[in-house]
Amino acid sequence: MFQSQRGAGQKNPSPIMFASWTTILSSIPPPLSGKHVKHSQRLVKKPKLLKRHYIAHCKFANEHKDMTVEDWNKVIWSDETKINFFRPDGKQFCWVKNTGFNSKLVRPTVKFGSGSIMIWGCMTWEGVGGMCLVLGIMDSDQYIEILNDKLVKTISDLRLQHGYTDIIFQQDNDPKHMTKKTKKWLTSNNIKVMEWPVHLPDLNLIEHLWQHLKM
């Protein structure tokens, strides 16, 4: 009875309605394939750049564009990084086929986090340099202790002072790196520091080393 009532109220589509739908369907582009297919992608997080940053980055590029491979070999790259005990920060993705629940595709979590450590390290053309644990919040005093131990030892162990007469030390613009006390130590130890623009992490080669370390 329900079907008969439903059928009784239906009407055949008019020619005008049929023509309208034909026009709409014909206007829809065919499915894209190959390189034209669009897909979702996570936005990459990078420091916000202002006009002064772009100017400083261009200035840095122009000042160093004529450096040779031998010149870059003299650079000691340094940085601090955080290492989580359990899992890296951020989301994780994987490629899977259409399938149901798979225990191998579960990312375990722990309550209240699992802790992390901060480390300082350096690297050179000749090899990996010193690395150490950062105790608490690093200040200029702890930073100088690290340089006096790990940086000086790196130069000695890799015999950089014999191969290069003008070693260049790279560090970012962290406030503890720029204090008068730190600058005085670097000057007294005859260590030339590369001027490093603000918000320029991608050019620091040690970032690639951190990626391998955290795998």
Can you describe this structure?
The protein has helices at residues 2-8, 15-27, 51-64, 69-72, 140-157, 160-163, 180-188, 206-213; strands spanning 75-84, 116-124, 127-133, 168-170, 192-193. It is α/β, with parallel strands linked by helices and 215 residues long. A five-stranded mixed sheet has the order 3-2-1-4-5, with helices on both faces. It has a domain at 68-87 and 112-213: Ribonuclease H-like superfamily/Ribonuclease H (Nucleotidyltransferase, domain 5, 2-Layer Sandwich). The chain contains eight helices and five strands; from the N terminus they run ααααβββααβαβα. The chain is elongated. The longest helix is centred in the last third of the chain and has 18 residues, at 140-157.
Topology overview:
Blueprint: H1 2-8, H2 15-27, H3 51-64, H4 69-72, E1 75-84, E2 116-124, E3 127-133, H5 140-157, H6 160-163, E4 168-170, H7 180-188, E5 192-193, H8 206-213
Parallel strand pairs: 1-4, 4-5
Antiparallel strand pairs: 1-2, 2-3
